[in-house]
């Protein structure tokens, strides 16, 4: 694995590295960790990388690595930069035969997203988008239960993602994380809706197997002086006629990272919360409520494949994130060995999910500005 | 107290009686428990009432009681009938000098609501509407904290009321409760939105001290053959610029009575859930989360006045309901004794709250049918 | 009902009155509310009782009420005084043909307990001891499940009752509640163990249907200057060979009233906590954990009989307390009407439970002082 | 790092590898993964190790690695075998100059423990015992708060570790994990008390800074045919006079891995549960209960050092385990570089903790067999 971004002071780069390292399936062999060559070298040294594999730019990295003999060069690129620097390295990696793992949202705008989708299709290379919340075992369990019809036809979906860390104008302090996320030149047309709203959208579609077909959005900037949305409430309609609510906020004071989803079918309701990720609550219409738990033998193969340790030994955010990497790595190894990856391992968010996320951003912002009630997705 | 409705087989009538009895402040002295004279008599007997105080109709009750000497006749009327039988007894009671406690929503339609509002104003009689959830101590605690500015200016309100008991067409069975609630002739223009949506609306306005000024509603009938809404998702705007979401559903399979509210201000978020009513969660921006608990000495006088027993001895739905009755009774006794009731006891939902609830019903149903995004409240 | 104790400033007297009033089955008709005649009269006035039914002593009350015609005089005596004033009124009531409801523990010492047991047996009068926690619906549900063998043979019981309110020497302030509970002349030989330890013992035996046969206790006074135990840890053995732990503490700083029990059988574990009383957690060995909830139709008749309102409308401490009174009242009415009370209504703690509680106090204090490991119960 | 044990089919070996890999500080370079040479080679291959670093025995590994040039050979040995194979490799590693990480309990018996303690002292090599639960950030936060006197003098400690997985005679099936844990030749004199009781003992002493001075144990075998204890209840006394309860059980049907501790001081109570590890509940005597959360900036440096990601991104068992390895690795690097490791990194369980754990096993089993009440620790 070669990494683009994630130098000293970055947040998500370290997460990607821990996630990739956890299972011993992936080795970090090189990186273009920063646009500052000096910082790039220092970051590489922190990571015990040889100096000659710490590149000054992603262009250099891709070019030089390509020249290395097979088996020695990196197998894939991991892109962990802010949104405006997803497209460049992803495109170049694909064009040079490298598989790609890319942080979300897919790109800066829809045009880039479409181009990446085209390139993935054309090259046939593996592409994973780190909508990491789909990596949780109980999310997969819920998906399987819904697919098998356990809760009946879905009628209502409530997905929410409140955070509170942007309740004040943090971007005016020295918070690197806040700065780029609230900067239209780096983040794109959306703030909270792009950063976390897309996670909510992706989770809802992944878990239910449904697609949003219409939405009606109220998009807000609550902190004075902020340039991008920090709050939004959205009515949803899905392709089977189900209705829903999605809300995402970064001014929900005191909330940590409270992604939560409730799905109501004709026979039961499901509830899952990212902050207590090892439980899946199943509320039946006519029998007692059940709590399914990560690590139990009675779960689906998909959930068990996403679990490392026995029930009661809590697995968290990094393990879920690592599930994306592990599935990607196992699938990649199959491909390298000339085999077809198994479906259970090909279970990671794709470039198509990324395009849907970009459309969500486009439509939710458009709807927020519109006086029209419903907007087609 | 004389009761209208609440005969054998009724639900809310028994609740009102337990709530009224709990504190020993109120005695049930007569009733018109049923439109069937025989059932009315039997119900009265169940309740150990003398036969001559069990009337065949509310008209008879009000007329006969009025003829009794003061001190012997009922002091007020409690109306616990379905929505279409609120107006008649309330109007007649007011016109004959009886104070009134009335179940929610206030009336069958807005016209009736306005007329009751006019009569209350004209007669100066006490009128309480049993939006019972405002009777919980921690709801009052939240209200006081917000009023005092503890959480700063409010930015976002999320209020939800999911139930699952109408997930199937229960009204086609012999459920008396489901039957009238889904019957436009008895319930009015709204189903879930009237039955529980108004509770959510009332709770949000009571707790925050804000008023809804605009809304955008998606109102649904999810169970085939049903005649009134059983689900609705609503975007809100409040008079201080805060935004919000209200949803109410009776097809949220597996949910019991999960009224919950979250209020986010500039400094903190508050969370309260009816099913765990003795905790108020306060999530501060820059200090640890606190859990305030019913019965602790550090709560506001309003919360303490609504509490009967020490912390850790859970108080529930009936106690909150009883708080409406107790405040009403204490205020009424003051009035009877020629005194001005204290503000802390005048803390119960009024006919004005009832009119707002009726407007909510009107507007939310109108918005649900409209292609216009925002509707003025 | 005539009440002994419970005048102004008392705690448990008001609880008994609310519990007795809730269901409209019982009327408070007289009382000897205080040993101070003046306070007794004032307390009676607070409760809207006629002056001639507010007596200056329990002796006077029992004597005068007996002289009243049947139908007019009280049917039973409710004793809500501190421990040292249980025996006198209970004995006199029984000797004069009045049924009795008595607060726990049964008496000041074992000798009194035995005498009351003898009198109840001799007179055939109804006697209820208010171990109120057995009144909760989910406690009854657990009892029924265990009796039916749902969780298999019981192997382990963990029952705990931590409170924190005596963490400082509150009895040195003006706390009436703390004063008598820590006074050997009023409380008896035990402090915390008598006040709440007996609740834990009673709950464990009631729920499991087992009896403690041996115990090994560590009994402590943690607050300097206190005269009775405020903390204790006890190892238990039950008559079927199961082992267990009981602990009760009033110096568990910050705890409210956290009575909790876990029962582990061969097939499943049950967990119930008084502070979240409407849930019963069932942890199965080989299927998902279930949460049973008060108010659901799938519960046992015993649990349903103890429930007043639908699921999701929380019932609490007063409702559970009221279940003791309601069952007592319904059974008493049957007896008055010359019928045999139904088993489902005879479900309230008896004088025998009271004698077991007194033996628990005796043995646990004896064991606390002993160097011998196990003490026979 | 060279690993002893942890071949195919093992549980804790994989945990150690993930924990060691997570932070990119440690590289697995060799192993003696199994006593079967064939299995050892295959396990090494699974882990992408070169064949010549996959040894057939720990003796071979230590000998051969020692012959490798510095910088190439392993820096330390990680021992993840069953209890009876801790002493051999640990002793040989220490005698040959290798630092050691060893799974708990320290050894098969006290004699071995003392000998290892002597060797560590003599050689001055680093030795970490993986009492992994002390690696959780909120455990460290509690330790710091207690040390600073925030909760006052400790009066009571309740530590419990219920599991249910040995509720049936699993060792009679093909469960490798159950087999050795219930085999006195591999596990030692204790079953549950050694496997998980020592974790509870270690957690209590680590968090409180107190030492157990006396205990009174009831030790049981609940499953017929089992050879070692599967359940135990223990009364405790600590060196400051505090009292406590420790219980550990593997027949608590339906429990997962429910290690939980409550510490009550004069001013507040603390509560932490391994299954919800990112919260620390602080129950104050006279202010609202607080929930401290992993990832918040207001925590102690010790807690922050043990945290990788922001609040609301749950960290779990593997992260806590990795904290032991990371602290060990950072301290080791300091030593290798000739520096004194910082105190904050030397925060991992030591050989002394291991000796205390072995004494706990010895005493708790002895007490279980004794008729004497208290046994000195």
Please supply descriptive tags for the structure shown above.
homotetramer; 377 residues; alpha/beta; Rossmann fold; Dihydrodipicolinate Reductase, domain 2; 2 domains
Characterise this structure.
The structure is a homotetramer of 377-residue chains. With 377 residues, chain A is α/β, with parallel strands linked by helices. Chain A folds into two domains: 2-129, 3-Layer(aba) Sandwich (Rossmann fold); 135-310 and 355-374, 2-Layer Sandwich (Dihydrodipicolinate Reductase, domain 2). Chain A is built from twelve helices and 14 strands. Chain A is globular. Chain A starts with a strand and ends with a strand. The mean pLDDT of chain A is 96. The A-B interface holds A 151-152, 155-156, 158, 160, 162, 164, 167-168, 216, 218, 220, 222, 231, 233, 235, 237, 243-245, 247, 249, 251-255, 262, 264-269, 282-285, 289, 370-374 and B 151-152, 155-156, 158, 160, 162, 164, 167-168, 216, 218, 220, 222, 231, 233, 235, 237, 243-245, 247, 249, 251-255, 262, 264-269, 282-285, 289, 370-374.
